[in-house]
Design goal:
The structure is a single chain. This protein has 260 residues and is of the alpha/beta class. It folds into two domains: 58 residues, no CATH class; 197 residues, Endonuclease Chain A (Endonuclease, Chain A), CATH 3.30.870.10. The chain has a seven-stranded mixed beta sheet. α3 runs antiparallel to α4, α6 runs parallel beside α8 and α7 crosses α8. The longest helix has 18 residues.
């Protein structure tokens, strides 16, 4: 529109400093600010609708942990529980951690305490552990199906004390016998078709969630869903199931008990 910052501020009846702060990222605009700015510079209401939709999608797609956990870890567990209730088929690949739906309270406490220590926020560890355990009730819903694939490294990484990890491994053995749960373990001797770069959770065919050190990514584009479906299929095809998976679990338990 060829407007200077001062001219735009006058058009919107804003202080000139507000325009400067918004341009340089020192102030976050409200949705009303965005609508007013777009209307003043383009005059098209549909433009502001498009901009707001894009920003909302970005906010969901890349959610920084410090923002997600601002209301406490307990609150975030409830968000995940809502997503799981709305999902018919949940597919999970994890190369490092035991998936949350299969964790014991001891293992969950260790993982959640780490999140609180790294990102700060309210120390609601007791409520968060209870919320994660309540999430697991969905495993007994016959209308739901679950397919977990983990690597043998998950069984052997020393991420917590042996007295915490031993009952966790026993819990995985029990989970592998549930009628609507498939638990696959990729042994160390297995040849990979695709490297196990990171874990991800697939909610039906609608979205994929990936956890990074800094943020939680929510992927919804069809090509992203298709790629992760392909990767999950490759991981699932080389995993061991049933008695073979339980053999790997038992071997890890015996090794951990012997070493400790």
């Amino acid at each position: 529109m060829g407007l200077s910052g001062r001219e735009l501020a006058e058009r919107l009846s804003w202080p000139a400093s507000k325009v400067s702060k918004l341009e340089t990222g020192r102030q976050t605009p409200s949705e009303a600010d965005i609508v007013a700015w777009v209307a003043a510079t383009s005059g098209a209401e549909t433009d502001s609708i498009a901009v707001l939709a894009m920003l909302r999608n970005l906010e969901t797609a890349h959610a920084e942990w410090q923002r997600l956990l601002r209301g406490g870890v307990h609150h975030h567990q409830r968000t995940w529980a809502d997503m799981e209730r709305q999902t018919g088929l949940l597919r999970v690949f994890e190369p490092v951690f035991v998936p949350g739906l299969l964790q014991t309270s001891g293992y969950a406490r260790h993982r959640l305490a780490q999140a609180i220590s790294v990102f700060g926020g309210p120390n609601d560890i007791d409520g968060a552990v209870r919320a994660r355990m309540l999430r697991q009730e969905i495993l007994y819903d016959p209308r739901k199906r679950f397919h977990f694939v983990i690597t043998e490294a998950v069984l052997r990484y020393r991420l917590c004390a042996p007295e915490v990890m031993l009952p966790q491994l026993d819990r995985l053995v029990a989970a592998s016998t549930l009628p609507n749960v498939r638990l696959g373990v990729i042994g160390f001797e297995t040849s990979y078709v695709i490297a196990p770069g990171h874990g991800f959770w697939m909610f039906d065919g609608e979205k994929v969630i990936v956890e990074l050190f800094s943020a939680e990514l929510t992927l919804t584009q069809p090509q992203e869903i298709g790629l992760h479906t392909k990767v999950f299929g490759a991981m699932a095809s080389i995993a061991s199931y049933g008695s073979d998976a339980r053999t790997l679990l038992t071997q890890a338990m015996e090794g951990l008990a012997r070493d400790s």
